[in-house]
Design goal:
Largest sheet: 5 strands, mixed
Number of helices: 14
Oligomer: single chain
Structural class: alpha+beta
Strand order of the largest sheet: 3-4-5-7-6
Radius of gyration: 34 Å
Order of helices and strands: HHHHHHHEEHHHHHEHEEHEE
Number of domains: 3
């Protein structure tokens, strides 16, 4: 058991606080949950076994393997109620949207089977222990304390703990004093049992070693993404404020020198050529800066940046976005470059006459869809930028889905889990 979880219930003054009563509520909740689970699992297993002969019960039995998911989520919430510390969810986000991808991932995860095992343990072993501990710690002292009031109401006798008949008010008073003494004495074991049970929840229903390593890899990848994004912005700022301004000044200086040179001489021709070359270098540098991190994305956000990219596309593109506000910078950057890469593929390979870009935010996910009416047949395995696009989206824990049957249309869909950067609410 984690000693950091035990400390709140081992302080001398914990009985005057909410710890023992919170522990009692926790064990009552887990005990009743286990009791309901026991009844529900027995009925479901019986129904599935009877219907299995007709093949109808097979899906029910397969679905029972996932019963641990909601039970584990409820147990993690109860453990947080006990001591305030959150139990992380060990499950990963599916690589693709849809029920089939979700089911395939859940049946393959070790956490799913650990949660199923815990559910069986809670339904057939733990709940009687939980309710027994609560009964011994609270019901026994309460029954002893009630001896005097019950004897006064009855006038003749009271059955203490259903095993001892008391006729004397003095003996009933002694029972009340014993109840007062037992209540704090039994409160400490009650709290320790609750903490031990919550520790079992954290051990079995929290991330295991493999899930913890995956989570650490995700967190380290997020840190690398932030560092890479900061470096990109520094390079973009240096190019914009340094090299670009100097090229503009050089082009202006060449233009002034050309005005001072003899108009029909070789010097004027060379200055004109140099000015043209400087202009081309400046245009290339601006394209490079826009490719590193466009200023409109930083200043105006993802919808305006995608609209700007659509305006530069040789194929007419309709852009529609419904976002709650600004999103985290890495998410906006990944979404923008996914759109620009998809539009570049539309212009180069699809033969499309029109295309559309639609973005929305719902259920904690940014979804961007790029659709064109071209010839179709796009295959990420054959390149065309889609593999690199999938890698770029995966950096922010997103997924890429491509649907491109021969003859079209082609749909490129990007899903990125995120939260609004400004705390806004998603649109209804």
């Amino acid at each position: 058991m984690d000693t950091t979880r035990r400390q709140p219930v081992l302080r001398l003054g914990f009985l005057r606080a909410a710890a023992p009563w919170r522990a009692a509520g926790y064990l009552v909740a887990t005990g009743l949950t286990g009791l309901l689970l026991c009844a529900g699992l027995l009925v479901s297993l019986a129904a599935g076994g009877v219907l299995a002969a007709l093949l109808v019960g097979l899906p029910l039995l397969a679905a029972l393997a996932l019963v641990g998911l909601p039970v584990a989520a409820w147990e993690r919430r109860l453990a947080r109620f006990l001591d305030g510390a959150r139990v992380p969810d060990p499950h990963r986000v599916p690589d693709r949207p849809g029920l089939a991808a979700w089911l395939r991932l859940r049946y393959r995860e070790r956490a799913t089977w650990r949660e199923l095992g815990f559910t069986v343990l809670a339904a057939f072993v733990l709940w009687p222990l939980d309710l027994t501990v609560v009964g011994a710690a609270l019901v026994v002292p309460a029954d002893l304390l009630a001896a005097v009031p019950l004897l006064l109401l009855d006038g003749e006798q009271v059955n203490v703990l259903k095993i001892w008949q008391v006729h004397s008010l003095g003996v009933a008073g002694l029972c009340g004093l014993a109840g007062l003494a037992l209540l704090p004495l039994l409160g400490r074991p009650l709290a320790l049992v609750a903490v031990a049970r919550a520790g079992l929840v954290r051990r079995l229903l929290g991330p295991g070693r493999q899930e913890w390593r995956i989570g650490e890899l995700v967190r380290s990848r997020a840190r690398l993404v932030d560092a890479f994004e900061a470096e990109r912005r520094r390079i973009e700022r240096d190019l914009h404020d340094g090299a670009q301004q100097r090229l503009v000044a050089l082009r202006m200086t060449l233009g002034l020198a050309r005005l001072d040179a003899p108009p029909d001489g070789p010097l004027a021709a060379r200055l004109t050529e140099a000015q043209r070359e400087a202009g081309e270098v400046l245009a290339e540098l601006r394209e490079l800066i826009n490719g590193i991190h466009p200023r409109v994305l930083t200043d105006r956000g993802l919808p305006e940046a995608c609209a700007d990219a659509a305006d530069r596309s040789p194929v007419p593109v309709a852009v529609r976005f419904a976002l709650p506000g600004r999103l985290p910078a890495p998410v906006e950057s990944a979404g923008y470059f996914a759109v620009t890469e998809a539009l570049a593929n539309v212009a180069k390979h699809s033969g499309a006459g029109t295309a559309s870009v639609e973005g929305r935010y719902a259920d904690g996910r940014l979804t961007i869809e790029v659709v064109d009416d071209g010839r179709g047949g796009a295959d990420p395995g054959r390149g065309s930028g889609l593999t690199g696009l999938a890698d770029r989206v995966a950096v922010v824990d997103g997924t890429l889905t491509v649907s491109s049957p021969p003859g079209g249309p082609t749909l490129v869909r990007v899903d990125i889990p995120c939260a609004p950067a400004d705390g806004g609410e998603p649109p209804r």
